[in-house]
Amino acid sequence: MISNKFCIYHETSYTYAHPVQIFPHEIRLRPRDGSGLDVFSFDLTVEPDAEIRWLEDPFGNRVARILFADLADRLVIKAQSELVLNAEPWPVFDIAPHAQEWPFDYRKDTLQLTPFIEPVFKASKPILEARLQGVRSDAPLDTLTLLQDLNRQISQHFIYQVRDTEGTQTPTQTLVRGMGTCRDFAVLFAEYARTLGFAARLVSGYLIDPEAAFSEPDASTHAWSEVYLPNAGWIAFDPTHGRMGSYGLVALAVGRKMDNISPITGAIGGPSGEPVMTVKITYGTMAASTNDALALP
Prior knowledge:
With 297 residues, the protein is α+β, with helices and mostly antiparallel strands. The chain contains five helices and 18 strands. Helix 3 packs antiparallel against helix 5 and helix 4 (171-177) crosses helix 5.
């Protein structure tokens, strides 16, 4: 097992043309413990001064609710995490015998998983079912092989694009355009999985290289999917890269829809014009013999 200590620094700033009223914001930037990830330090600071209240949302995400008192022409959100990654690069999953071949029944877990089994984009269901006709078979299929093939197909047959604007394409739009962002591919994979009867959820976070000492200059947030398999739990599938498992993935938030996992949500009031937004994300390894984080900016 490879174990690495990392410090991740994430800064998001918004600059407005005029002072504005900043309505409450919700921040999902604290990494989630579990799935090969242990968090031992997290610090969140906000400018201008604000009240920070912590809560847990229905998906178990730790959410900071930020309350502002005064008008401001700039908003800066800084998060620094210290964590250990210990996920296996080639994981072996202990899947319950009855779920090792598809199709299978979730049995006692069905009620709790129903929200994740139900498709979100119902209008896209016909085209997804048509694309999956080749999967339908009288003979059972190996569950992990089926999911890996689906994951790999998206990675190999769709073009990745950088799109800074907010929002996500529908599965139909991604299929028709043949391209998308990591969040578009995560949504497409999740909807494909749900169409096949799997429980799937979306994840936002970071993709880092455990073998690298420092991040590349263009480090950014990432999105992928997870599928629940009995005994094995939630298994990560990254359709952008065709990878399975949590190796190198740092989850920040999980949810049924992309709206549930946005790292930062909120609104402003006043004639601000279009704000200038900048995002800076860096990470670096920490010495195994010390708890002192790297001096990241």
